[in-house]
């Protein structure tokens, strides 16, 4: 309401301003009043207030023209016409001006609204693209990069201005670039979206992506380029490879002890059928060893399932560090052949935890120490106090672990020696050990020198006496 009053006030003032201007210029126009000047307030009123205000201004101007005998401009109309004809013509022309100005204003407002909507849509789209967790790329018809979101830029690891305007040959080896560009051209040619796995090379490392490529179409449906959305599935690919390897290894590892058990049981059966033999005891012992190995493999698989589902239950009790070491040695000794275990350090330090699970950790470390030091005959266990923790260590003098692999030994399915022959295992023991120690609020780590051996450490909170 207030705005309308202001608009009407502006209209009235502008009309009277024209009247005042008329008296100023009339002496210079042979006393002819150029009524065309009234089209200025009419146009202004229509622009700011619409058709209604334009009509009001026209009526006001017409009244003033009539009362002050403001004859139309001599060069347009002559004095031969009656005043009412001149006023009629004035009104008709004013109506045309109102129509034109209102139409122009409507067009400008529509264009402004469209621009605002385009800006909003563009901003929203840019925000979505920039906040996406997957790399998003837009290329033109020639395969040159037009747009790259922050996640995509991270992959290239170079400034954006060094990427835009260039094609794939600037960033990938020729073979990979040719394959990528061939795929892009096919999609732009067929106009169909494709989803597929793609292997690329960034910073010298192979990365796998689940890639969606779609043609970029213009306003009239013509193809102007290509849109690429890539999801990094490198980790999944590696896990799939490890899974496949795991299945093969598991099959081999489970089959071998079962075959041995079957063979020894058959031999034992024949011996017993013949009336018994002193060797029966030996075969039975070997059978038990292989059964224990099979039991451990199956237990590891079950532990993995419990860890992943969060169902590993710990039964806490208190015991000394020496008791834990002795229990681990007792469990591991039957499966170790020629290694002598030397125990040293502070046996009386007290810890708390699930003794059976911690014994499992010790057993695994001892068996690994024996397995990876076939040419050595001793393993050293040490117990120390460091701050509020008891630190256990198991040292062997075997093949050691390469420095670049030491950070991976506690990963699931990771095997230090990829060759299956001579170093059996599923690559689960150290991963399970890490999870058990972590649940006891401790830490586990390794120090190793290739060719000289490895020392595995783990810490547990010290219990005050």
Question: How would you describe this structure to a colleague?
Answer:
- The protein is α+β, with helices and mostly antiparallel strands.
- The chain has 4 domains: 2-108, no CATH class; 132-232, 2-Layer Sandwich (Beta-Lactamase); 238-307, Signal transduction histidine kinase, dimerisation/phosphotransfer (DHp) domain (Helix Hairpins); 314-461, Heat Shock Protein 90 (2-Layer Sandwich), CATH 3.30.565.10.
- It has helices at residues 2-25, 39-67, 83-131, 150-156, 174-190, 234-273, 279-309, 321-332, 355-371, 429-439; strands at residues 136-140, 145-148, 194-202, 205-217, 223-232, 317-320, 340-345, 350-353, 378-386, 389-395, 444-449, 453-461.
- The strands form 3 sheets. It has a 5-stranded antiparallel sheet, with helices on both faces. It has a 5-stranded mixed sheet with strand order 7-9-10-12-11.
- The longest helix is centred in the first third of the chain and has 49 residues, at 83-131.
- The model is unreliable at 66-78 (pLDDT under 50).
Radius of gyration: 45 Å
Q: What is the assigned CATH homologous superfamily of the largest domain?
A: Histidine kinase-like ATPase, C-terminal domain
Order of helices and strands: HHHEEHHEEEHHEHEEHEEHEE
Largest sheet: 5 strands, antiparallel
Strand portion = 15-25%
What overall form do the CA principal axes indicate? elongated
At the first level of CATH, the class of the largest domain is Alpha Beta
What would the CATH topology of the largest domain be? Heat Shock Protein 90
Number of domains: 4
> Would you identify the regions where 5 or more consecutive residues have pLDDT less than 50?
66-78
If classified by CATH, what would the architecture of the largest domain be?
Answer: 2-Layer Sandwich
The span between the termini is: 85 Å
Number of strands: 12
**Secondary structure category:** alpha+beta
**Mean of all residue-level pLDDT scores:** 80
Number of helices: 10
How helical, in percent, are the residues? 40-55%
């Amino acid at each position: 309401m207030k705005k309308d009053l202001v608009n009407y006030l502006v209209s009235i003032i502008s009309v009277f301003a024209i009247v005042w201007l008329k008296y100023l210029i009339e002496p210079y126009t042979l006393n002819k009043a150029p009524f065309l000047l009234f089209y200025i307030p009419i146009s202004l009123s229509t622009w700011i207030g619409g058709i209604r205000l334009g009509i009001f201004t026209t009526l006001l101007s017409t009244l003033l023209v009539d009362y002050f005998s403001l004859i139309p401009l001599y060069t347009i109309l002559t004095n031969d016409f009656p005043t009412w004809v001149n006023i009629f013509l004035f009104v008709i022309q004013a109506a045309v001006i109102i129509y034109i100005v209102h139409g122009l204003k409507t067009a400008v407002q529509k264009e402004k609204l469209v621009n605002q909507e385009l800006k909003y849509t563009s901003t929203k789209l840019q925000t979505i693209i920039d906040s996406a967790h997957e790399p998003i790329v837009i290329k033109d018809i020639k395969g040159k990069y037009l747009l790259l979101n922050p996640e995509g830029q991270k992959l290239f690891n170079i400034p954006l201005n060094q990427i835009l305007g260039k094609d794939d040959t600037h960033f990938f080896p020729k073979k990979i670039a040719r394959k990528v560009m061939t795929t892009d051209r096919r999609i732009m040619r067929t106009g169909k979206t494709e989803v597929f796995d793609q292997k690329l090379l960034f910073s010298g490392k192979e990365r796998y992506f689940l890639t969606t490529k779609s043609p970029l179409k213009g306003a009239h449906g013509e193809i102007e380029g290509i849109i690429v959305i890539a999801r990094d599935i490198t980790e999944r690919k590696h896990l799939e490879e490890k899974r496949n390897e795991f299945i093969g290894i598991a099959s081999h590892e489970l089959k071998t002890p079962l075959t041995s058990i079957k063979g020894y049981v058959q031999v034992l059966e024949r011996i017993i059928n013949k009336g018994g033999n002193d060797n029966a005891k030996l075969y039975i012992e070997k059978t038990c060893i292989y059964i224990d190995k099979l039991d451990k493999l199956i237990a590891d698989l079950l532990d993995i399932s419990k860890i992943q589902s969060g169902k590993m239950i710990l039964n806490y009790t208190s015991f000394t560090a020496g008791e834990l070491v002795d229990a681990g040695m007792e469990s591991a000794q039957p499966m170790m052949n020629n290694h002598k275990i030397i125990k040293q350090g502070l046996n009386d330090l007290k810890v708390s935890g699930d003794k059976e699970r911690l014994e499992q950790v010790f057993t695994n470390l001892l068996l690994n120490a024996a397995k990876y030091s076939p040419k050595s005959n001793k393993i050293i266990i040490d117990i120390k106090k460091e701050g509020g923790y008891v630190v256990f260590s198991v040292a062997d003098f075997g093949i050691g672990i390469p420095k670049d692999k030491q950070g991976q030994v506690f990963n699931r399915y990771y095997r230090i020696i990829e060759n299956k022959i001579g170093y059996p295992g599923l690559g689960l023991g150290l991963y399970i050990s890490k999870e058990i120690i972590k649940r006891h609020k401790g830490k586990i780590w390794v120090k190793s020198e290739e060719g000289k051996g490895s020392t595995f450490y783990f810490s547990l909170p010290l219990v005050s006496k």
